[in-house]
Amino acid sequence: MLLGVPDVTPAHDGVDSLGADCRIDPSVSVMRFGQRAGVLCLADGVSIYAQTRLVLGDVLADPGVGMRIGARTIVNVGAYLSGEGGLEIGADVLIGPHAKLLSAGHAIDGGDAIIARNRITRAKITVEDGAWIGAGAIVLEGVRIGRGAVVAAGALVRRDVPAGMIAAGVPAALVRPRRGLAVPGPVPAQGWGRRVWARLTRR
């Protein structure tokens, strides 16, 4: 008996495909409408804990709508994952409790004064293998979290985090590379800037 750990399940409402040995708490909810196959797919050994919300919205609204979660990834309690603009999570990723990955929003400039009437903005979020998104962190649309990168608890991430780097704060800034890694990751071509990356990796 495993207390507080979801049971292995062969299926879950709203999930198109599950690999072997996936664990999904019965309280996990999926918000989607429209008919399209292969939109929400989990690889082997994925665990999704209680009160997590998986959001796709209208699966016909945009070809990028979708969510894929890689093998052995763990999504902790109360997380909110949006695939409305596309969400790709790699293998062996840790998503902390109450973290939010938001791949869609509303346009705020121009259009209607009532925000709810304005167009939906969408941009894919990618979380590469072995990354850790800390408790209560927020990752906004269009962001890539690199392989083995760490997003600190409570951080607000608006820009890409290179592989092997740690980002923290509101808004998030690069803090340092993870120590002891043979290769912290490729030099970023843009975004945070090559000089910032070089300064941090010399520490």
From TrEMBL:
Top-rank lineage group of the source organism: Bacteria
Keyword terms of this UniProt record: Acyltransferase, Repeat, Transferase
One GO molecular-function entry: acyltransferase activity
CDD domains per the UniProt record, alphabetical: LbH_MAT_like
InterPro entries: Hexapep, Hexapep_transf_CS, Hexapeptide_acetyltransf, Trimer_LpxA-like_sf
Pfam families: Hexapep (PF00132)
Identification of the protein by name: Acyltransferase
Source organism of the structure: Verminephrobacter aporrectodeae subsp. tuberculatae
Lineage of origin: Bacteria, Pseudomonadati, Pseudomonadota, Betaproteobacteria, Burkholderiales
